[in-house]
Amino acid sequence: MDERERRWAQLMQGALAGDSAAYERLLREIAPALRLVVQRRLARLGAPTAECEDIVQETLLAVHLKRQSWRSGDPLGPWLWTIARNKMIDHLRRRGRRVEVSVEDFAEVLAAPEERPGTEAAEVEKHLALLPEKQRDVLRAVAVEGSSIGETADRMQMTQGAVRVSLHRAFASLSARLRNDG
Amino acid sequence: MKTDDLIRGLAADARPTRGLGTGLALGLAVGLAGALALFALILAPRAGMPGLLVEPRILLKFAVTLSLAAAAGLTALRLVRPGARVGEGAWLLLLPLAVLAAGVVAQLLVTPPESWMPGLMGHYALYCATLVPLLSAPLLGAVLLALRRGAPSHPALAGAAAGLLAGGLGAALYALHCIDDSPLFVLAWYGIAIAIVTAAGALIGRRLLAW
């Protein structure tokens, strides 16, 4: 556990300095841990576990957009579980369920299996389709098709800077749309 | 979009970022510049100002407002960090109150009761209650924008802390001009003025800082 915390904190420090490989490694480690905890919580609350992947993706978006609120030197866990808990509560509240979930419920998980579900997050998908065209195209090219920023810029006849801006805006508006839904 | 794809996209959006504390400091610098410009436009330092700072009652105004701003700033930073223990530093906010309480008690001990009410009402109470919020406005705006990068579990509370910070600094700025020196005046009218800014911060923060 301590070792995982150390590794996560180190990777996050790299991410905040702009190291995208470290950042990707961190997110790939965080995602299955999140998925496991959210699934358990949903099951315990009697909520449909089909919503799990939506909550995981909403949490990852928040982690991304709010990553500056983590202070280097602090453990990453408490920060991460607080974000996950808040996102889960928001998500369930939008569906008219009032729930109390404590941070401790989230922190108790020790290890998560390497699990890569093929399911898509239905709600994220819905809002993705409603993004402004340019943001959506850039997001699809970079995320889904795996194009680099440079390739995307060439293909869409944009500057690399403009691609970066569109990509960032896509994440910010996706997160805002999810929050304001219903 | 599969979660794996989302992660690939998020990683592509990585770039060097500055910490929240640095962001707040930059925001404060911008807000303070705005507040100083406003001050220069509509007010002037009172006669004999830098020298008057040795006077205990005048010094008290700066001690109360600036310590309030410092405590509120630290509290705001804590409130927008997920997982930070909120209660841990809350006692800091008692410090400016204690300083003010000491000033009020001293005033009551050394001045005759018939002077208390005139001291409390002062000369420019309404100016104080309106100019402090005005001077605080650019500060509040800048602080709230800086805190948007944070993730408060309670956005209204974080907004209120931002309001206390902006109100404290705005009040310190107004104290450069203000000739009402009774600690009773500070308690009543600076208190009302800062409460207005705090309420505004809570109201705006509730929406602006939600995430």
Give structural notes.
The complex is a heterodimer of chains A (182) and B (211). Chain A has 2 domains: 1-117, Rna Polymerase Sigma Factor, Chain: A (Orthogonal Bundle), CATH 1.10.1740; 120-182, Winged helix-like DNA-binding domain superfamily/Winged helix DNA-binding domain (Arc Repressor Mutant, subunit A). Chain A has 9 helices and no strands. Chain A has helices at 2-16, 20-45, 52-65, 76-94, 103-107, 122-129, 133-144, 149-156, 160-180. In chain A, helix 8 (149-156) packs across helix 9 (160-180). The relative contact order of chain A is 0.11. The model of chain A has no long low-confidence stretch (mean pLDDT 88). Chain B has one domain (59-208). In chain B, 73% of the residues lie in helices and 0% in strands. Chain B has helices at residues 3-12, 20-42, 49-52, 56-79, 94-110, 116-121, 125-147, 155-175, 183-208. In chain B, helix 5 packs antiparallel against helix 9. The longest helix of chain B has 26 residues, at 183-208. Chain B is elongated and about 75 Å long. The interface between A and B is large, with 59 and 33 residues.
Largest interface: A-B, 59 and 33 residues
Q: Percent helix among the residues of chain A? A: over 70%
Task: Quickly give the structural class of chain B.
Answer: mainly alpha
State the helicity of chain B in percent bands. Answer: over 70%
Q: Quickly count the helices of chain A.
A: 9
In the CATH hierarchy, the third-tier topology of the largest domain in chain A is known as Rna Polymerase Sigma Factor, Chain: A
Shape of chain A: globular
